[in-house]
């Protein structure tokens, strides 16, 4: 029996043209946040430690401003909405898997995706500063301290039953790419895939992603 296809799609720099979380740090982050970002990219600091630490220094009172900022600057990548239709027509399951945070992702994607299609970090803004809730932390097979652990989500979809496709652009997608049957990549994820020898297909728009899936369908989805 043929496997079902499930798409694991990143948000910042992938579904959204912008790195929305970086834009929030630029506008609202504490001094020195850039060094934390660089350490995460270099692999010397975990995403959970770095992102959680930055938000812990941002007053909760600024969250409404951050939501408005995110909604104002975010642009969905060309073809994204058409890609959601494409997935529905072809019976592919679409999941947004993001290291971002619910308070800005949910408003941007309101009306496009149901909440059960979105895997991201939660937040608690009831205290003096923003506390990130790691609702999808690493399982027993991951030691990367991801925060929102994409490989752990993927393991809920056994490879015997699912053809797993990762669409992403950054270092947070690399561990997921190692488990994927098909990787569709841009930007830093391309660099990381080349470094570790992971095969990938490049993209810039979601029309490209659809073309990749159509082109590879005969071989990949049997």
TrEMBL record:
Pfam families cross-referenced by the UniProt entry: HAD
This entry's Gene Ontology molecular function terms read: phosphatase activity
One GO term of the biological process aspect:
L-methionine salvage
- Which UniProt keywords are given for this protein, alphabetically ordered? Amino-acid biosynthesis, Hydrolase, Methionine biosynthesis
Q: Which HAMAP family match?
A: Salvage_MtnX
- PANTHER family recorded for this chain? PHOSPHORIC MONOESTER HYDROLASE, UPF0655 PROTEIN YCR015C
Name assigned to this protein: 2-hydroxy-3-keto-5-methylthiopentenyl-1-phosphate phosphatase
Species assigned in the record: Candidatus Methylomirabilis lanthanidiphila
